[in-house]
Amino acid sequence: MSRIVINGDRRLYGSVAVHGSKNAVLPVMAASLMNQGITVIRNCPDIADVRAMQKILEFLECKVQFKNDCMIIDTVNAQSKELKEELTKPFRGSSILIGPMLVRFGSVKLAQPGGCNIGSRPLDIHLNSLKRLGASWRMTQDYIEVEGVHLTVNDVILRFPSVGATENTVMAAAMLNGTTTISNAAKEPEIVSLCEYLQKAGAVITGAGTECITVTGRGRLHSAEIIADADRIVAGTYMAAVTACGGSVFLENCKIGDCRSFLDVITGMGAKVTVKDNAIFVEMDHRPENLNYIQTGPYPEFSTDMQSIILSVAAKAEGVLKLKEQIFENRFKTAPWLEKMGADIKIEKDFAVVKGRECLNGCEVTGEDLRGTAALVVAGLSAQGTTIVHNADYIKRGYMNLCENFRRLGADIQWEDN
Ligand code: UD1
């Protein structure tokens, strides 16, 4: 495993272009399987999860070209095959292949998807939604099998607005004849961009971004092209770093609406945020102040992906933050490492209480998941002395050129391959 070495306590100045969104690109890659044609994804980030999805598509005999930031996927000759553990284990995003593979091939068998250990992450909502469309499924400890040759449209009500389950249901519905209504759907920007792609491919969709989505399909989809939005979690990571370290940073390519709840939090903590066109300017000239209370929730609420990253900022802010994690039960695994750096964090069930300290101290810490590792980088950038972040390979799953970008902003940070 690689490590990141940071000599912290430096202000950040300059500009960063935020790359395309991982969570927007992965479902479009999965959906490409359905059109038996060509899908073009522009602004596609070259990160490990995207490469892992590319590997699966190539295993299924799709042709994939990925140059600069443009991915071209040809699914004309895709073949139905069982997806073994080595393909599905690297990332949770493999679960969103269930819907597209089911409607393209009539059945799908895949090893249980892996990914970050941030909670139990069941798939019941995905599978029961597909069951409403006529599929049947069987799950063992290791495998998931779903079958359904004659699927039909229906009304689907999700028991929770799961992002992945909404994506699987919308994708499957787009290939059916007629109208499917999905209630209590997830409202994340990634759902909106997936629906945009499916519309370009021939489905008629209304309500994307609201809790009720209707999808009218015609039994087939055609070739389509999409430009991925900027990654709102990556943008949030840079904004959190400026809030913790001080300085002023210009983030290019950001859709402000997608980052709203996070911007509310950092402005509440004292950062000055100016928005111009598709860019966000973040300035911080003093120690951050803690908000009293934050809770994570489905979009547009505060994102669980930003939870550990905001803990790093809160750890050196003035005052006390009480934070409630409502989405993933194992998202607090970074807290003990922050404590090792001098943070005062008490975890009780799904609550973290953070009493801000004047400063954090660099030391050796270990990333436990993708966003937790990013949180440790943010903590290291704002800490005094040297921080070594082990398990740094997690960063490659979601961030392009993170160390180079922070270096250009004035940080002393190095990636070291072990
Ligand atoms: C997606 C994102 C992830 C983000 C999460 C929540 C991708 C690739 N990943 O993950 O970065 O943190 O949304 O915004 O886009 N649940 C069930 N049964 C299910 C499905 C989910 O109980 O069938 C539960 C989960 O355990 C969790 C909650 O619903 O508690 C939210 O999960 P979900 O929205 O499905 O997250 P993902 O799609 O896995």
Can you characterise this structure?
The chain has 418 residues and is of the alpha+beta class. The protein folds into two domains: 204 residues, Enolpyruvate transferase domain (UDP-n-acetylglucosamine1-carboxyvinyl-transferase, Chain, Alpha-beta prism); 206 residues, Alpha-beta prism (UDP-n-acetylglucosamine1-carboxyvinyl-transferase, Chain), CATH 3.65.10.10. The chain contains 14 helices and 23 strands. Strands 21-22-1-23 form a four-stranded mixed beta sheet. Strand 7 and strand 8 form a beta hairpin. The longest helix has 14 residues. The radius of gyration is 21 Å and the shape is globular. The termini are close together. Bound molecules: uridine-diphosphate-N-acetylglucosamine (UD1). The site of uridine-diphosphate-N-acetylglucosamine has 24 residues, from helix 1, helix 5 and helix 6.
List keywords for this structure.
single chain, 418 residues, alpha+beta, UDP-n-acetylglucosamine1-carboxyvinyl-transferase, Chain, 4-stranded mixed beta sheet, 14 helices, binds uridine-diphosphate-N-acetylglucosamine
Described by the principal axes of the CA atoms, the overall outline is: globular
At the first level of CATH, the class of the largest domain is: Alpha Beta
* Fraction in beta strands: 25-35%
- By secondary-structure content and strand pairing, the structural class works out as alpha+beta
CATH homologous superfamily (4th level) name of the largest domain: Enolpyruvate transferase domain
Topology-level CATH name of the largest domain: UDP-n-acetylglucosamine1-carboxyvinyl-transferase, Chain
Biggest sheet, in brief?
4 strands, mixed
The assigned CATH architecture of the largest domain is Alpha-beta prism
Major sheet strand order: 21-22-1-23
**Termini gap:** 6 Å
| Total count of domains | 2
Determine the number of helices (DSSP H or I, runs of at least 4 residues).
14
Name the poorly predicted regions.
none
Number of strands: 23
Ligands, ions, cofactors? uridine-diphosphate-N-acetylglucosamine
Residues in helix, %: 25-40%
Mean of all residue-level pLDDT scores: 95
Radius of gyration: 21 Å
